[in-house]
Amino acid sequence: MFLDTANITEIEAMLAFGWITGVTTNPTLLAKEKGRSRADISREILSILSEEQRLFIQATGETQTELYEDAQIILSKDARIAIKIPADEIGFRVMTQLKQERPDVEILATAIFSVEQSYLAALAGCDWVAPYVNRMANQGLQPAHVIADTAQLFKQLGVPTKILGASFKNTAQITETLLAGATDVTIPADLVTVMMQNKLAADSIHAFNLDAKGGRR
Ligand code: G3P
């Protein structure tokens, strides 16, 4: 499980649970951390991640050159950084370029809305594709079908590209994504908290605690 946030307080709180593989950010999440640069936020997040945990940072640019150069800047900062590249025509060029030059660089193809994008990203050698579940649902698409078809295609092709579901607004979307065949998910911290909460469990635990107190008397 990855955390989809650039907020250091949220990351710190969630790291205590030990199930976090890494943190994913995007320009919108970074912009929410007002008054701070991407470099500053990244440095602070990396300072609390372990050697094994990954930080995903998205490269931006209107042209192939801009996108490629931004990716190089991002990747130069720390070996634990994986690069997010948008899955459009310019992005596919940059993914190919990066993988040819540095096969060890970990690339996540982001802003995925179709099996077609995932297929091209896998051929470009990407390590992950990130289907945008809630944004698909908002457009009347069927994210679980897209993910299941992608998982089947990757298996058929024998490619190692993993599916990292992203863009979640409720917990059902998360379980549906995993059951459809996603290997990973990236979740906003508030939704992880919701996943831990269950009224029936809370009632049972409360009763156990009351009985335990009575039993100890
Ligand atoms: O990591 C980016 C992806 O999660 C987008 O999420 O909530 O902006 O649709 P959202």
What keywords describe this structure?
binds SN-glycerol-3-phosphate; 11 helices; 16% strand; TIM Barrel; Aldolase_TIM
Overview of the molecule:
Keywords: Schiff base. Pfam families: TAL_FSA (PF00923). This is Transaldolase. With 217 residues, this protein is of the alpha/beta class. It contains 11 helices and 8 strands. The relative contact order is 0.11. It is globular and about 70 Å long. Helices cover 53% and strands 16% of the residues. Helix 4 packs across helix 5 and helix 8 packs parallel to helix 9. SN-glycerol-3-phosphate binds next to helix 7. The site of SN-glycerol-3-phosphate (G3P) has 10 residues, from helix 7.
Largest sheet: 8 strands, parallel, barrel
| CATH domain class name | Alpha Beta
CATH overall fold name:
TIM Barrel
- Would you identify the CATH architecture? Alpha-Beta Barrel
The CATH superfamily is identified as Aldolase class I
Q: Bound small molecules, which ones?
A: SN-glycerol-3-phosphate
Given as residue ranges, the uncertain stretches (5+ residues, pLDDT < 50) are: none
> Gyration radius, to the nearest Å?
19 Å
Proportion of residues in helical segments: 40-55%
Placed side by side, the strands forming the largest sheet appear as 1-2-3-4-5-6-7-8
Q: Give me the number of helical elements.
A: 11
Short structural summary:
The chain has 217 residues and is α/β, with parallel strands linked by helices.
Please give the structural blueprint.
Elements: E1 2-4, H1 8-15, E2 22-24, H2 27-32, H3 38-48, E3 54-58, H4 64-75, E4 81-86, H5 89-101, E5 107-112, H6 115-123, E6 128-131, H7 133-138, H8 143-157, E7 162-165, H9 171-179, E8 184-187, H10 189-196, H11 199-216
Parallel strand pairs: 1-2, 1-8, 2-3, 3-4, 4-5, 5-6, 6-7, 7-8
This protein binds SN-glycerol-3-phosphate.
Residues 4, 24, 26, 28, 132, 134-135, 166-167, 186 line the site of SN-glycerol-3-phosphate (G3P).
